[in-house]
Amino acid sequence: xxxxxxxxRGNKIILPDSALGELSRMQVSxxxxxxxxxxELGIKTYxxxxxxxxxxxxxxxxxxxxxxxxxGEGSEVIVRNVNLRKxxxxxx
Length: 92
Fold this sequence. Notes:
By secondary structure, the protein is of the alpha+beta class. The chain has helices spanning about 15-25, 65-70, and strands at about 10-15, 35-40, 45-55, 80.
């Protein structure tokens, strides 16, 4: 939980500071949205970033998301910046 219990209550991840630097150079659109993928199974989900304070070459994700992606601590995931279209309809 990296000392951040609020991480478990949402769909946000924590990325390293170097990711923010690279994203700034790329002039990405805001809000930043990422697709996180388990490369072994092809399972993916979409997330935002809570902050950019993770250790280099790591990504801190909620436990529920690790279960969703069928990955464990130390597993490799791919994180890509994506632009999603705004929704036009929702039905509950």
